[in-house]
TrEMBL record:
It comes from the Bacteria. It comes from Rarispira pelagica. This is Imm50 family immunity protein. Pfam families: Imm50 (PF15594). InterPro entries: Imm50. The lineage of its organism: Bacteria, Pseudomonadati, Spirochaetota, Spirochaetia, Winmispirales.
Amino acid sequence: MNNDIIGKKIIEDYFGYFPTFHDCEIVELKFNRDKNYAEITLYVFDTAKETDDNGHFKKQKECFISFEIRNLEDMLLKGFNHQNVLERIRFVKTDDDKIKIYLDGCFGLSGYIKAEKVSVLSLKSKE
């Protein structure tokens, strides 16, 4: 399904693969009713095999990725809080040839957004 994400090569080039977005954080989510679109910005990182002094995997390739979601059709979102950590994001093609973006939350916001298309707006390195 990731083939239906316009501009996904930007993400693949940065990480060397298309991530699951495990432990990423939703830092911004906005909707525009007149233009019928949403924009979501995520704080995303990869982890190294090495651990820090506390035993946590070291973060690498930290960045902010913004997606534009066009022609919204349906959504269900719940649990917004100060951090909004996701277990993963799934991009699933629906029977009616739309995209359903599942935000599988583990702390904070979770739910789904169904739309006609998804594009990568930007990827900005934090490093």
